[in-house]
Amino acid sequence: MSHDFKMAESDLVVKAFVVSWVLPCCAIIFVLHFFKRKFKEIFSAVWAYLLNKTVPIVNKATKRHKKKLFSELLDQRKDLGRDLMILEIGAGGGANFAFYPPKSNVTCLDPNRYFDAYLEVNSKKHRQRVNYLKGFAENMEMVESDMYDAVVCTLVLCSVRSTSKSLEEVRRVLKPGGKFYFLEHIAAEKGSLTGYFQGLLNPIWSFMSGCHITRETKQAVRRAGFARTRITPFNGKFPFVFVIRPLCMGIATK
Ligand SMILES: C[S@@+](CC[C@H](N)C(=O)[O-])C[C@H]1O[C@@H](n2cnc3c(N)ncnc32)[C@H](O)[C@@H]1O
Fold first, then answer.
1. pLDDT tens-digit profile of 93-127?
2. Residue 50 alpha carbon to ligand 1 centre in Å
3. What lines the ligand 1 site, CB under 6 Å?
4. What global pTM score does this model have?
5. Residue 194: left (phi > 0), alpha (psi -120 to 50), or beta?
6. Any idea what the Cα angle at residue 147 is, between residues 115 and 248, rounded to 5°?
7. Which of 55, 67, 84, 243 is an S-S bond match for 95, by CB 3.0 to 4.6 Å?
8. Ligand 1, atom 11: closest residue by C-alpha
9. Is the omega angle on the peptide bond into residue 101 within 30 degrees of 0, that is, cis?
10. Ligand 1 centre from 1 Cα, in Å?
11. What domains does the chain contain, in order, with CATH numbers?
12. How far is CA 225 from CA 153, 158, 170, 252, in A?
């Protein structure tokens, strides 16, 4: 009798523990997990919308540089005598379509699927043929090696997790003689006032936006094993506020 009573008592303790701790904890974890995914989706959609809205402003501020940079695509198009195969990494909403030779075959790689609708509209506007890949520059395993005449990336290397892995992948997917076109904001000179503020702000800046303002992209491209690299640093106008300056653009040939 006393043994049965003890069993019933321990059952009650287990039941109470499950009801008052295990179930509520599971419910909280489930709700947090659900909202984390939902929140991430909402954030990605809003980010894509906002970034697409800023395209005309950024393109106005970089028009002269982008025109000069991408003019070499026209030369490539002429030399090859066919439409170009271009891979744009971190394509966003297609900010660079206006600068490509019309009817290029552009593969747009971006982790954020909410850009697709903007890419569709912008590709029609600028008469480009696009297809989409969801993924990260650091691992483009879905892309064969030696595939593209040109790889383009503008304002992306500040956001990737690994610059060196991304550049290794860029070089892999380019055809021999293919060209990597880039335009990025970079770390200011060491010891400069801007460099000091970049170092101070970068932890919070990168946490909030995923964008790093202290990346030494020029050096990273030079170290990436391309046959030839040309880089031009420049100082951007608004909207590149002082901590997201200077910028650089360049072409690296495989
Ligand atoms: C500041 S936006 C620039 C978009 C566009 N290239 C432009 O110039 O307007 C950065 C883009 O890089 C993408 N991105 C972030 N991390 C990435 C990664 N690891 N690989 C490829 N794209 C990435 C983002 O989704 C976003 O579209």
1. 999 999 999 999 999 999 999 999 999 999 999 99
2. 13
3. 51, 55, 58, 89-92, 95, 109-112, 136-138, 154-156, 159-161
4. 0.87
5. alpha
6. 60
7. 55
8. 90
9. no
10. 71
11. 58-253 (3.40.50.150)
12. 17, 20, 11, 9
